[in-house]
TOD1/MUCI70 glycosyltransferase-like domain-containing protein (Gossypium raimondii), 263 residues
Amino acid sequence: MPKVPSFSPVLKNLTYIYEENLNKETEFGGSNFGGYPTLKQRDDSYDIRESMSVHCGFVKGTKPDHETGFDIDNSDLLQMEQCHGVVVASAIFGAFDNMLQPKNISKYSEQTVCLYMFVDEETKSDLETEHGLSDGKKIGLWRIVVAHNLPYANGRRNGKIPKFLLHRLFPNARFSLWIDGKLQLLVDPYQILERLLWRKNATFAISRHYIRFDVFEEAEANKAARKYDNASIDFQVDFYKKEGLTPYSEAKLPITSGRVEDT
């Protein structure tokens, strides 16, 4: 592991915006969990500065404690704060996916990498019936963390919370690797980090979708699979079009895809 992470501006003072009594019909998008930022506030949040205030989940608290919209037991939070190196995380909500154990993991990784699976109470019940749950809250290599009082009725939306906010769930970790619930980790985490981040001195890596390279094709596939309400998908696609997004083609090279995989 590199002694010093790749260069990034240092954020020293961070606060979270919680606004009550909003006229939500006039706000663009958002939710009670993530707040209702305007497009300007959203754009400003990408410009890292020493002091910032952002809409970024857990808006009723600075960490995923109680009554924040993604509640986690204190014993789990304490363990998560002890993760200082690499965290590998995944999530299954609504018992939608089968839990897949990582393979080809070195003994060193088993001892030093934090592997966490976030679930809801329904999924936990199914896992206990199928696999049993050890005293250490582990099934195989995964440590199971149950999230309570979830903000969305849709399990896919709840799954986006740990995916996008790992930096707040694991505030002391230096590197994180997200694995979608339907996927299986088949390579040692350190090999992935070395190849995609450390070798290139990069701060972020994301994989292309293995089938579709176009956002608009993905939207139609989501409709066919009934993943979300069609009207909400159309609303989002219309927004992308107004912002200037066009269908993917080779004319956009060296950009090789307009659509990424959930890792």
The mean pLDDT is 85. The CA atoms of residues 185 and 262 lie 13 Å apart. The longest strand covers residues 86-92. The first helix runs from residue 39 to 44.
